[in-house]
Amino acid sequence: MATTAILSALAEEQQGLVERLANPVRVTRAGRDFWRGELQGHSVVLALSRIGKVAAATTATTLIEAFGASRIVFTGVAGGVGHGVHVGNVVVATEFVQHDMDASPIFPRYQIPLYGRSRFACDATLTAMLLEAAREGLTGATGHFYQNSPDQRVAVHAGLIASGDRFVSGATESRGLQAALQAAGFAPLAVEMEGAAVAQVCFDYGVPFAAVRTISDRADDQAHVDFPTFVAEVASRYALAIIGQFLQLLPK
Ligand code: ADE
Description:
globular; alpha/beta; five-stranded mixed barrel; 10 strands; single chain; Rossmann fold; 35% helix; binds adenine
């Protein structure tokens, strides 16, 4: 059976998945804990990405090389930067860019040297399933959750996510980052610190990849305040609901 890797950015998100794992086996590799087992009849391996692009790339490589992951699905939180992307909304990634990659003037800004590309696309089939899972899995999950749609459904967006080794926590920084990206033709919906690295590793190995991020802050001066509260109260529940629905949609 194909092994699906479920990569969580936060321990709070992973905890619910580990608790639901049938026949759990913990394996330590590269200083990280990986959990093998079954979820809803699927063979899975669970891991924490750790924080930042390098750490996430190591985790993704280990998932593929040591655990034979045949697809990787990533859940986490992100700072919303796109117009109308509010705290409590969900963004399903269609592609990633590294907002801190700059080998200019040797290579165009944002281009990954020797790849001839700046964008790494997510797998279309997995992404469509993740979108459906987010829409279905979060129906009725809202109530008090922030600025969602008037009918209280969680707003789910799909688009570009920008990753970099910075927690973006200032309105001025966020505006500068967006302006520079926009000048190069990128319009990100959200910023985080790992997705583009995992997307690049998956590209290297030809492993399908999809990612979903719940918006924990607006990457502004309030970001550091919103973040811990949001993670504790909301992110773990969202991730669990989305992954539960995703595994229901995933063919066995
Ligand atoms: N993850 C969640 N919020 C973030 C932010 N503002 N910047 C980078 N990564 C994040």
